Amino acid sequence: MIEKSFLVQKFAKLRLDKIHIIGYSVAGEETVVQIPELDVCFDIGRAPYFALTSNIICISHGHMDHMAGLAYYLSQRHFQGMKPGTILVPAELERPIDSMLRCWRDVERQGTPYKLIAMEPGRDHAVRKDFIIRGLETHHGGTSLGYALISVRDKLKAEYLGRPGPELATLRKQGVPIQYRTEVPLVTFLGDTTAGKVFDHPDVQNAEILITECTFFDPIHRQRAKVGKHLHIEQFAEILPKLKNQHIILIHVSRRTGLRRAKSTLKKRIGEEEMQRIHFLMDIQDATPAGEIESAGPPAADSPE
Ligand SMILES: [Zn+2]
Ligand SMILES: [Zn+2]
Q: How far is the CA of 32 from the centre of ligand 1 (A)?
């Protein structure tokens, strides 16, 4: 008998309101989570084909299961005639990642272009005037970051509502601050992290969609979670009451616990009602086999490889 799971890797495709979450995430194996509507992919895993379509990649930390495919992603995009990818990385990793990519240029003898952006906790990268990506400090031992995708809007202050346009224009010209800025965290992604102050951050607590790891579910794995600086279900259950998210997506579940058992353990711990807003990314009800998702990738290039 051939082990079927080795033949087709299945990717998850979750639809939450207007946003899709496409990806794959198993602890130690591969993590890649794409939000196609926002043109962002969190971590790159082994660079599955669908991930090539994201112009922005946010790297959470340097572990191989989260970023092995980075050079491949950049090289493939170049090969396919797509524009260079923009890669957000924790500032301390910028230099080693840059060296790695330069090595690949020599190895492959192809001048693959790329753009690295050094990120730090609290630093914003403006994608557009109305869309920023903010770095968040996570707790995984070494250097690691989470990312919040934030919609930014300027709104008219209450006292100026209903005033005629020309009057507002004059006030604006005079430098009167008639607007205030609002931020809506749409999606926040925490790569690998244990419990800590990141869960008190407003962009984590208030994000419409929060994607967080929860690696371990068995009582005997508490020590393992502590050593690896990962989240254990007990910690998650304690954090949950302060999270106001509409949807919480759990990723990075260890293969040591089957997904079905992880789900039922969590349900027993937090109750049916709280489960309504929790999704396990790899609970592949809505997922389609790799082939179908991969057809959303770029067309094959004519040039020989
Ligand atoms: Zn990991
Ligand atoms: Zn890790």
A: 10
Nearest Cα neighbor of 213 from 50, 71, 66 is 66
Ligand 1 mean position, distance from CA 28 (Å): 5
Q: What are phi and psi of 34, to 5 degrees?
A: -110, 140
Distance 253 CA to ligand 1 centre (A): 9
Note the pLDDT of residue 294.
56
Query: For 287-298, how does the pLDDT look when each residue is reduced to its tens digit (9 = 90+)?
Result: 666 556 656 555
Return the ligand number nearest the Cα of 142: 2
In whole angstroms, what is the distance from residue 184 CA to residue 254 CA? 32
Residues 101-113: pLDDT tens digits? 999 999 999 999 9
Distance 193 CA to ligand 2 centre (A): 8
Query: Which letter, b or e, does each residue of 95-117 get, where b requires 16 or more Cβ atoms within 10 Å of its Cβ?
Result: eebeeebeebbeeeeeebebebb
> Distance from the CA of 222 to the center of ligand 1, in angstroms?
16
Instruction: Write the CA distances from 77 to 45, 48, 218, 222, integer angstroms.
Output: 16, 12, 41, 41
Enumerate domains of the chain plus CATH numbers.
10-294 (3.60.15.10)
Name the pTM for this structure. 0.92
- Enumerate residues 6+ apart whose C-beta is below 8 A from 11: 22, 23, 24, 48, 50, 287, 288, 290, 293
Which ligand is in closest contact with the Cα of 25? 1
